[in-house]
Predict the 3D structure of the following.
Amino acid sequence: MARVVCDLCPRGCRLAEGQVGWCRARIGYDRKVVPLNYGRLTSVALDPIEKKPLARFFPGSYILSVGSFGCNLRCPFCQNHAISQAGADCDTQVVTPSELVSLAQELAARPAGNLGVAFTYNEPLVGYEFVRDTASLLQAAGLKVVLVTNGMINEGPFQELLPLVDAFNIDLKGWRQDIYDICGGSLSAVKQNIAAAAAVTHVEVTTLIVPGLNDSPAEMAAEAQWMASISIGLPLHVSRYFPQWQATEPATEVSVVYELAAVARQYLSYVYTGNC
Ligand code: SF4
């Protein structure tokens, strides 16, 4: 049976007609790969920008935050698994890009204000077409576009998206490929995309510290040194894990998060702790 290759992310799923990809968000249909989650929202909220987390992008502002379903990673410790690991049978509300922009504009006119739209909660890049189409309209309307992402996308589609995005928070799950092997991803692809995005737009990085997995001070030092080679002004969020989904390890000790943040501060100007 003829298969079609999805060229959106490094997993490169080869999909037969009607077959859903690893991310649960894309399907082989009529010899093309099409998104199943276009305009299908599982979560809508007006959040403080610091909750994304973005510490150095319009601090004190609010942003309309939306999520869909699906993810191209399967981290056993996923803190958002209810939607990231869900498929097309989950409950959603359907919006068009222009409807979402209208909602963002309505919120912007209220006293609390609204910067634009953050694509977050699940992995937004597996809903690439909806993000791209909405981002174009947001940009034309003078609103901001934020992506909170795992950064696991191929270079071509990422380069097309970059001019439409005002700020990223990109996860860096650890400093070894075997950490990414557990999640089903590629460390080199994520590093490449962090560097590419930071060259042209605002980027902050988040590392969720999971006990026994990525809590080595030496590896944090290596990660921070690499980030500093891009820019010492690249902000890093060192975040505390809590047991979720398939992960049963107790929550990370707060002292460990603080210790790793102190290590990173030897190399970077802006290091923040989260969930502590
Ligand atoms: S985006 Fe989804 S369908 Fe496409 S290659 Fe990645 S995991 Fe597979």
Notes: The radius of gyration is 18 Å. The domain at 37-274 is CATH 3.20.20.70 (TIM Barrel). The chain is about 30% helix and 20% strand.
